[in-house]
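Supplementary notes (optional reading)

For those who missed the lab, this is the record we used. Protein: HesA/MoeB/ThiF family protein. Length: 371 residues.
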Amino acid sequence: MLNSERYDRQIKLQGFGIEAQDKLASAKVLVIGAGGLGCPVLQYLTAAGVGNISIVDDDQVSLSNLHRQILYTSDDIGKLKTEAALDRLNAMNPEVQLSIISERITTENAVRIISEYDVIIDCSDNFPTRYLLDDVCRILEKPLIFGAIYQYEGQIAIFNVKSNEGDVTHYRNLFPEPPEPGEVPDCNDAGVLGVLPGVIGTLQATEAIKLLTGIGEALINKLMTINILNYQTAVFEIPSLDLTDKNIPYSIEEFENMNYQLHCGIEFARIKNISPSEFTKTVKLPETIVIDVREPEEQPKLNLPYISIPLSQLKENTDQISDRNIIIVCQSGKRSITGAKILQEILGTEYNISHLEGGINHLNKETHEQG
């Protein structure tokens, strides 16, 4: 039974009332990602009384998360984000039915998971997941609330919802093709002001409430951008482009056969993604060289033999490479993909080229956990 006292202040709102609160209570929302964006989304939707919320994330809480992922504390370091979030949110509002899915969203599980929900909220931090969610939500006709951050700027939009004019737009209408790997750094490389995901995530939660209750004017077929340094804000109409000629899936079968890592350039033919455990074994093989494509001043340094060639200088310095087994590394795995592609194009198939997946950040995290 609805506890009207808990939601009293929003029920009293003109144009909201008990009818809107009942709509929230009967809604089912899926939040993809429990990081910087996901934390405020989860907190505000839980507090608002959305009846059923599920959280999808496979990551653990780390110290570097805490300046922006305010759902967690220092005591949560090493815990699964889903489990730590579940404890906090249950304490915040036990009336909400919360569930967790402690795995990464993939083409294998996306249809099964997403089919059950009314609204999907994209709080992911990578392009393969964004394109995957856009495609599956388009196929399943599920509303998708998108959010993204970069340093001091953020974006919010709603896709796969028909406007009053009958138009429907998708993430691919906004970004038809994925950017080249490394072209758009994530916060691991570029940094982010901690309050920014709080602002954007709160706006995503706002759009979810508007969409579920019918109040206000939601960002359907619109992109909102905000720069928190100067508060320049703009709202753009998203063009409704013809996607029929694009190499994108239109059925569940086609979707489940997509390789989004390959689609977004995270994987290349004959370039191997190696995990931290594979990396520690591979570096010991004969004729193996490790190339760090970060800038020389970047920290932390590798505790093993390597050569430093910044990505911007890689094409001009391939003469430094004589070994046949090449491993490219960087901070988060983005620049190393680009570097591996450059070397593949220059050196050809005679060399075994791989890159460290997740970069030195992932390597150090794995080493710390094992230690």
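If you only remember one thing from this example: The chain has 14 helices and 13 strands.
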